Amino acid sequence: MREDTRSRIQEIALRRFTEQGYEATSLREIAEELGVTKAALYYHFKTKDDIVASLVEQRLSELEELLAWVRSRPKTARTRREFVERYAAGVRATRHHGIAHFLERNQTALRDHPTLIEIRERLMELASEFTEPGASATQRVSHSLALFALHSGKWLMNEDELSEEEIHQATVEVALRLLET
Amino acid sequence: MREDTRSRIQEIALRRFTEQGYEATSLREIAEELGVTKAALYYHFKTKDDIVASLVEQRLSELEELLAWVRSRPKTARTRREFVERYAAGVRATRHHGIAHFLERNQTALRDHPTLIEIRERLMELASEFTEPGASATQRVSHSLALFALHSGKWLMNEDELSEEEIHQATVEVALRLLET
DNA sequence: GTCTATACTCCGATAGAC
DNA sequence: GTCTATCGGAGTATAGAC
């Protein structure tokens, strides 16, 4: 009843790319953990980059959905809160959190990846969705920072002091305040 | 009247490490840009890691100075503002901005680097320097995010819309508000 | 779908001449 | 202080048997 090999490759790759970085993770390592040889991976993915592509596309479509949702709503305080909660939930969900985290940590290595460039554009659009045309520089910075705040819990904070749940609630709170500026 | 070779290596390495990532930058590239061979680099630095070490140690001592300064002051609103401005200036100054930026972008690649671990500890200490013992989770997250805000201008924001000076002022403002929470 | 075997390239690093 | 030459290893990727 185990998953198919393709999914297991994605899973292992995502974890190692996140922990060690994309370039520092070799296909040999991934194959070894999976219990096959390097060559076997090439049956499932054309190249190393193809593994990345399969991961980041999931994230892109998630962001596109969220953007469409935001645009379909009135720009009220209630929408803001619901948006922040949805975004935070997406970052947190086991499936997508991993991908978001991987992206944060590998911006340099993947800086020319076409899908990543699209993801960045969508994030910018999301950040400015609650910004009025005549907004001040301070407001623009605040709003951009709000999205980042939702990712920040996992590595800005020392997990010894606060529980995961506390951190989650706190980042949502901080993000909302930044958006309300 | 040009600088000595050692400084030029640091300068080229810093730029390329920041733009492309540490692992993606080879010594051959650095040597080529400098106009020498790889082997020549080894006269100036024992290993590739040694180049990194020479860079990050500058940043560590800068943070240590700042931490000592903060601790020598009363925890007043005036100190807060002066601290934020000093920190922002340090991030901004051509010399150190590059190093800070390099560190942000290579956290994964350098995650086991002893000096980087120290730098992270100092940053945590700085962030918590304005946090009362009984502070809420929201306050802790805000304060951690404040330091990050001072770095954020360069890559969260689209430089087309706002001037560098406007972004600088805005990040200082946002950081102060986060610290005052 | 997975294997062995291998091609080819690049890496960081060293030895030793100049 | 810089060079040429080279080492050993690891990387991605492919060919072809099973």
Automatic annotation (TrEMBL), chains A, B:
Domain HTH tetR-type as annotated: residue spans: 3-63
Assigned keywords, A-Z: DNA-binding, Transcription, Transcription regulation
InterPro entries (UniProt xref): DNA-bd_HTH_TetR-type_CS, Homeodomain-like_sf, HTH-type_TetR-like_transc_reg, HTH_TetR
DNA-binding region: 26-45
Annotated source species: Nonomuraea salmonea
Pfam family, one: TetR_N
Name of this protein: TetR/AcrR family transcriptional regulator
Iron recorded as keyword: no
